[in-house]
Amino acid sequence: MRKITKHLFTLFFATAFALSAFSAENPQAYIIFNSQGEKVSFAEMIDAVSKKNVVFFGEMHYCPICHWLEAETTKQLYARHGEKLLLGAEMFETDNQLILNEYLKGDISKSSFEREIRLWNNYSTDYSKLVEFAKANSVPFYATNIPRRYAQIVSLKGLEALDTLSVEAKRYIAPLPIPYVSDSTKVAMFEKMTVKMMGHDNRNPEFMSQAQAIKDATMAWSISQAFVENPDSCFLHFNGSFHSDNNNGIIPFLMNYNSHVSIATISCCRQEDISYLKEANYRKTDFIICIPNDMVNSN
């Protein structure tokens, strides 16, 4: 009996050591958790979010794992929804919708598209695959964000400065005035951000908060209008996680414009140890993709 016990004891530790060695030799690129910190599979996440009208994929910009999973999520939702899938992204501005549509339809060349539209510097590595998937499968792709020149006006002069814009310019912005309520926590955050980035406080943090709000409101308005054109669709929206974490950012504006849509949220975070989810990341979104701190960036 003692020999059997000793053998089992040895076998247990040998197995544990082997698993540990296997893990060390095969590092994981990500683990997905639900809002309670429980590990879930990619398939389980897709099954859950596919039941909703709007899926916010909150990325970390320049993170290759985020961008790869965005593409995989797109493929899986297309497999479930087909022609009812809609795509949209923070990275494209509303006044560029015509150019985007012309490229998706094949009216203009890739070189013309990339030359004339304002693309992020990581477009070729991180977002082109999404646009090309939409083009190949005739999936509508919405440029949802406010033109940056108008967001800059707000950051310098406040929301009221938008009132002086032409009727044509206002077509590219959420209806004014937006339902904005000043948030002291956000204002303080922008104040710290300004000091950290610029070394001194020479910009109005309240105006910066308002600029963030007009971006969120315009993205929300763009999404809501997509449902006017395509009811009963599934809209997958790509944005920085700041725009949808904790049901903030875009989401309150969207619920103001269309309170009937159901929403699922995905976020990404980095941790030194991804075997568990830190409590600080609990309940941030419905699903949290945890990625190692030392994962490379695409820029």
CATH architecture: 3-Layer(aba) Sandwich
Estimated share of beta-strand residues: 15-25%
Low-confidence stretches: 1-23
Strands, count: 8
CATH topology value = Rossmann fold
Helical run tally = 11
Radius of gyration: 22 Å
Characterize the main sheet: 8 strands, mixed
Concise summary:
The chain is an alpha/beta fold. The chain is built from 11 helices and 8 strands.
Task: Summarize the structure in words.
There is one protein chain. The protein has helices at residues 2-25, 42-49, 64-81, 97-105, 110-116, 123-137, 148-157, 167-170, 184-198, 205-229, 250-257, and strands spanning 31-34, 39-40, 54-59, 85-93, 141-145, 234-240, 263-271, 287-292. With 299 residues, it is α/β, with parallel strands linked by helices. It has a single domain, classed as Rossmann fold (3-Layer(aba) Sandwich), CATH 3.40.50.11550. It has an eight-stranded mixed β-sheet with strand order 2-1-8-7-3-6-4-5. A hairpin with a 4-residue loop joins strand 1 (31-34) and strand 2. The chain is globular, with a radius of gyration of 22 Å.
What is the element layout, followed by pairings?
Blueprint: H1 2-25, E1 31-34, E2 39-40, H2 42-49, E3 54-59, H3 64-81, E4 85-93, H4 97-105, H5 110-116, H6 123-137, E5 141-145, H7 148-157, H8 167-170, H9 184-198, H10 205-229, E6 234-240, H11 250-257, E7 263-271, E8 287-292
Helix pairs in contact: 3-6, 7-10, 9-10, 10-11
